[in-house]
Amino acid sequence: xxxxxxxxxxxxxxxxxxxxxxxxxxxxxxxxxxxxxxxxxxxxxxxxxxxxxxxxxxxxxxxxxxxxxxxxxxxxxxxxxxxxxxxxxxxxxxxxxxxxxxxxxxxxxxxxxxxxxxxxxxxxxxxxxxxxxxxxxxxxxxxxxxxxxxxxxxxxxxxxxxxxxxxxxxxxxxxxxxxxxxxxxxxxxxxxxxxxxxxxxxxxxxxxxxxxxxxxxxxxxxxxxxxxxxxxxxxxxxxxxxxxxxxxxxxxxxxxxxxxxxx
Length: 263
Hints:
This protein is α+β, with helices and mostly antiparallel strands. 22% of the residues lie in helices and 29% in strands. It has a seven-stranded antiparallel sheet, sandwiched between helices. Strands 3-2-1-6-4-5 form a six-stranded antiparallel sheet, covered by helices on one side.
């Protein structure tokens, strides 16, 4: 049902589309391919000079721009300190981008302070109206740099009022009542600004009319929510782990957009 998803799944294109309507997101520092980089100001620079443009920004995130999932290729770098070789990275991953690393809200820091934990917000766009179907919190693993379940993370259902479910689930469906690095129980823990997170996802969804079913990764910073990226394959496994049986409501919702006119 998702058509022409390249503008969403190409992370650089997605960032530019969202930036055109003022969607808050981590600042783009540069993007490029195996040969050169292009700064956010449009300057073409050699790969060896790209990270010079991140000097003084603290940690930055380097990740593939296309065709990656599950956190593959995502690297946290301290420019000038880590000896990171962008040329070697580009040879492996092809297109890439560098963006500023953002801090997370204290409500998430108390659950796992070692990773930027994000919300996976599933939206459906029907007849021009965006609707949030499901919201999950993704908590990173104890030894990972991302919040993906493939590297030890877990997902927890988030209710509209910001309350977490009692249990979070890892990729093997093991139930957890708290994260391994913290003693704060998930049950009754409430996260601020979930209404704002949901509203931001709906704003983003309206920008991609050819991709009606999207999973948005949204970080909550001390200053509010910011969009990390959108996913045209938002993982039904995440939804099933956290929300149980969803076929009765999800299947009719997806069928309602399968036969829409091509734009």
